[in-house]
Amino acid sequence: MTKLLLTKRAPVWLLALSCLALAACTSTGATQSVFAPSTSTSTQLGTAAPVQQQAIAPSLYELAYSANQNALFVASAGGFGPDAPASQLLRLDPQTLAVQAHTELPLRGFGVALDDAANRLYVGNGLEGSITVLDTRTLQPIGVIALAETITGSDGKEKFAHHFRQLVLDSANQRLYAPGFSGTDSALYVVNTDQLAVEKVIPGLGPVTTGVALDAQGKRLFLSNLRGNLYEVSTTDLSITKAYQVAADQLINLAFDAASGRLFATDQGLAAINERRQKNEPTFTPTPGNRLIEFNPNTGAIIQSAPTGLGPIALLVDPASKHLFVTNRGSGSVTVHNAKDLAVEQTIALKDHPNSLSYNPAQQVLFVSVKNGQGSAKGADESVARIAFQ
Predict the structure, then answer these.
(1) Tens digits of per-residue pLDDT, 173-186?
(2) What integer pLDDT is reported at residue 41 of this predicted model?
(3) Using omega within 30 degrees of 0 as the cis cutoff, is the peptide bond preceding 352 cis?
(4) CA–CA separation, 324 vs 265, rounded Å?
(5) Are 384 and 373 in contact (CB under 8 A)?
(6) What's the pLDDT at 28?
(7) Where are the domains of the chain?
(8) Residue span of the signal peptide, if any (predicted)?
(9) pLDDT of 220-265, one tens digit each?
């Protein structure tokens, strides 16, 4: 995840997440876009045209393309010091990336989930245990949903029990799923979107649960963590029904393709996390990382895997063209993978650290939030990239 989801007193292996970004959701979910099954024939995905990349605002995180509004929404967390700029939600022109409108957020915004049919955008206040709900037509707030309770830490100070990253929408059940992670026991917060209140909290998801993907037809939710665990939660009775220990240590993001019934994940392979685990667990042997994985969604078995760039985070499925998109934060690139064998077909270089993804499938345009590199000035605006496939 990112510096957003961490506190100064977080353990070192958790602080390693600060080199990541609040990964990918958007569109129907929080890190990834999941599209309904299509009965039409496959479309071709052309070669990427020259990339448009525009500086927008400081501390950009997730974004979401709205077909209803023909707009791109992106969350800016603002800053982290006493004089830092306010967090805001920005509406961009999806053709030019020009800022059309913006609104100040009451709390720092990171992850987003779009309900386009209801003209709602859910913005996760990842460090402040809540979700802000906005009307996408007016950018006016609808409400703030309280999630995690505060607890007293070992230092005697109050903090939220969990931090939040991705949000996934389940329109059929009027729910929003928000994995809350911690260094010990993560939990899934289930939000009723009609009442704008927490319906249930499901604990038992292990350390640092970050990945989440919905199989709406199968009435199940998949979750993954940075300790090689993959979970299945029933969306009918809201309980953990399956738990797997898999040969992939750092499953940062998940994506479920409703059209094919396939489950994908990015396994990031961050060295700092591996080194910390090896120090605390002498028998621990890291798995390769820096790869894209397909799991059997019914058994948790790895079907196949293929290399990505360095530090893969977000992934997004385009069922129509049968491709997957992956942001590689370490390599400064987006890789385009053939869904059949996961092989890389295109590598698109960006400046500096690609983070989250959103997609306009009708025009085959990919949007990417991009974090600044170490050479950038402190507090400098971060950018959004537009990649059109011809």
Answers:
(1) 999 999 999 988 99
(2) 55
(3) yes
(4) 11
(5) no
(6) 34
(7) 3-388
(8) 1-23
(9) 999 999 999 999 999 999 999 999 999 999 999 999 999 999 999 9
What are the percentages of helix, strand and coil residues in the chain, rounded to 5? 5, 50, 45
Q: Is 345 exposed, middle or buried (0-12, 13-18, 19+ CB in 10 A)?
A: exposed
Residue 339 structure tokens: 């869904």
What residue type is 31 in one-letter code?
T
Q: Using CA atoms, how far apart are residues 8 and 3, in angstroms rounded to an integer?
A: 10
Say if pTM beats, i.e. exceeds, 0.85. yes
As a whole number of angstroms, the distance between CA 239 and CA 245 comes to 18
Instruction: For 3-388, give the CATH class.
Output: mainly beta
As beta bridge partners, residue 371 has 353
Contact between residue 127 and residue 4 where contact means Cβ atoms under 8 Å apart: yes
What letters, b where the CB count within 10 A reaches 16 and e where it falls short, cover 213-222? bbbbebebbb
Predicted confidence (pLDDT) per residue in 91-122, tens digit? 999 999 999 999 999 999 999 999 999 999 99
d(CA 73, CA 315): 18
| Coil, helix or strand at residue 21 | coil
Query: Rounded to 5 degrees, what are φ and ψ at 368?
Result: -135, 130
- Using the CB atoms, write b or e for 3-30: b if 16+ within 10 Å: bbbbeeebeebbbbbebbbbbbbbbbbb
Measure the CA–CA gap between 99 and 97, rounded to whole angstroms: 6
The amino acid at 323: H
Sheet containing 365-371, strands listed edge to edge, beginning at the edge strand earlier in sequence: 52-57, 382-388, 365-371, 353-360
200-216 residue pLDDT tens: 999 999 999 999 999 99
Note the maximum CA span of the chain: 60
CA distances to 128, 137, 158, 159, 248 from 150, in Å: 10, 33, 6, 5, 32
- Tens of pLDDT, residue by residue over 45-55, are 999 999 999 99
